[in-house]
Amino acid sequence: MTNIDIKSRFYLLQLEVAHGSDRYDIHIHMERPPLVLDLMQEIENKARVPIMNQQLLYRGTRLHQTPDKPLEGFGLFNGNRIILVGEKLAGLEDEHFRRLLSIEKNAEIINDVIGVVCRDFENLKKSQQPRNQCTQLLQDLKAHSERCRSDLKTFQSLANDLKIDSSELDAYRKKDQVVRLIRDRLDILSSIISAISSYQ
């Protein structure tokens, strides 16, 4: 694989985000052009300023107003500085938010594994091999799926057990978002396990 091949497959962007006197190095590595929303999610993880509270300024442009626009559309390149305006969370709400960010990150790692399982199962179906010739692969895919489901249920319990007061609006919203993400992935896993089990 040449450097051109690598460059065409991955988007690498390093930015500096200034938030008052704080500075954050943000690194974005993706297989598609990163959007403003991708940047906002990275900032949420690093600076713990919830997406809803973020205002991002770059050369007089308010990036946060167009979250679905690719960053390259603003002429951003490595080393550019973005100004972040928005309040960090404090006290117990910050602690809850940090915990939820950790659970969300783990759920996203499992989501990547789910993607690999789906891809491998689709490739197996396309190969049209008789089931008796691919029993071990099917067992492995099912075992991976069941492990993912078990881990997600653990993360779901951890998120549900967090006692967040309704006055902690940002942490409350984040909890709802994380629980929905996990529930959605559990539904996908149920479908995958069922499909693998019934594959002829």
Automatic annotation (TrEMBL):
InterPro entries, per the entry: BAG_dom_sf, Ubiquitin-like_dom, Ubiquitin-like_domsf
Tree of life domain: Eukaryota
Domain Ubiquitin-like: 13-91
Coiled coil: none
GO-annotated molecular function: protein-folding chaperone binding
Entry protein name: Ubiquitin-like domain-containing protein
Originating species: Rotaria magnacalcarata
